[in-house]
């Protein structure tokens, strides 16, 4: 084994000051057992903590378990390490968290014998220190720190990519739930298409079922998204699908409304780019019978026909769907696409609404509670949680605020930035009444949230 460490040529040059991480890797490279105990207590800052489905032992049935990668820095280098499963409880109790200090007590080096040039440090024992790292305030740009890579592995793209160290899984999960996008694979903000579209032969949703009885090659669809659901993750051990996700949408054209399902590999590429109001030009789609055992948003306020017996399926392959996101300035009035509409309820009307009534609300946030987690109903297995927070908002029609129980809806960039003095829109909220208390609204499976305003103060 070689006794030095390096980073890829794309990284910045190695720092000159002594580095605990660098010396640790050098010692691991020269010891015969690839395992060592720390000779000194050196604080390391935790800059990332990432969860994913654990590797399955071949031929052995196992319960669903999760693994964690922890990225640390000593101020000179940054290193992604595998957290030994015996330390997972530190994550579960939030003792090990990003932004805190830790010290290695024992670690080892693990080689992946199934893939040449892939290995990583495994942290087997550690001590959690200060909740707020003393190192991080002195680091101007964490991403500019070189990545610690063992000699001979500098060209490994995987070791420097946002993917798990255990290569059986291709993506990370959110730390506290399964509903949010997590990692660099989730594309957002990509430019929409301004290419000229042939809309002379598009099919209408209203005639889709009868048309597909006589044609094996359906005409394209030109539709607008009027509802977007949260992500559904259905990963499990042994599943041979790299990105086991699905998301439901409601789309409409001038003939009516139909469900659309985005599957698997298409979710990281398109989910964050397909929003309410987005216009889609769809090719190579599949029409399937609707899945009956799921909740559906109320669409009656749109005043359009809802085609509920069938749904549009967009797949990564067999056939590979072609999704074109149409630029807003390219949308033509003659296409006859409907406007997005809502069913807003004022706070003054809330007491008169029945339990489980579904409505949309808008208001100015006056209170935003901390994010909490609760065990997910109906999911058997470890680490199945929902994240939620309590929010108060006023709309000027009552002295009482809306009391909102908001669950994460696959938009962490919105959910985590709700704060006082932002305007909040919540759709498909469900009325809850408890004797002796004010009524409150809770998220449904179809709830979406939007915010505007500045909370930088």
Automatic annotation (TrEMBL):
PANTHER family: RPA-RELATED PROTEIN RADX, RPA1 RELATED SINGLE STRANDED DNA BINDING PROTEIN, X-LINKED. GO terms for molecular function: single-stranded DNA binding. Pfam families: RADX. It comes from Iconisemion striatum. This is Chromosome X open reading frame 57.
